[in-house]
Specification:
There is one protein chain. This protein has one domain. 16% of the residues lie in helices and 38% in strands. It is built from three helices and nine strands, in the order αββββββααβββ. The strands form two sheets. Strands 1, 2, 5, 8 and 9 form a five-stranded mixed β-sheet that branches. Strands 4-3-6-7 form a four-stranded antiparallel β-sheet, with no helix packed on it. It starts with a helix and ends with a strand.
Length: 138
């Protein structure tokens, strides 16, 4: 019975809106954010969104719509160690300890599309962080 209740609660949570913002906003006030740069050769890795402004997000797609304005996004990174150099692999322990930055505060502007990536190009793991890779007009 407890399992049934737990599964029911999870299914209800999965049906909640994809974003934590007002449902009646027009798409003109929304911004598209792409989280999958797919450039591992350049040490730019995809992100999985965990929260927006401290509120959890259940959706794990590579594209999201959020309201324009300043937001703090927190991520989980999807680092593919096959694309790191031998010296980078030595840092794997630090990566697993999450010594890098996992959030990004940014002012998203109306009518633009943003591509975000996890930047693992710096030599020090502490300098690895989510970045705005590209901005284009929608």
């Amino acid at each position: 019975m407890k399992t049934f209740i737990l599964l029911s609660m999870i299914s209800v949570l999965m049906m909640l809106p994809d974003t934590i913002y007002a449902q009646n906003s027009s798409n003109l006030e929304k911004v598209t954010v792409d989280l999958s740069p797919n450039q591992p050769v350049h040490k730019l890795f995809p992100l999985t969104l965990l929260s927006i402004d401290g509120k959890p997000v259940a959706r794990k797609d590579h594209q999201i719509m959020i309201e324009a304005g300043q937001h703090t996004l927190r991520f989980s990174t999807n680092i593919d160690f096959r694309y790191l150099t031998a010296s980078d692999r030595i840092l794997r322990n630090q990566v697993n300890q999450r010594t890098y930055q996992d959030s990004l505060t940014f002012n998203f502007e109306t009518g633009k599309r943003y591509q975000l990536a996890f930047d693992a190009r710096p030599d020090r793991v502490e300098d690895w962080k989510p970045i705005v890779l590209h901005t284009t007009e929608q």
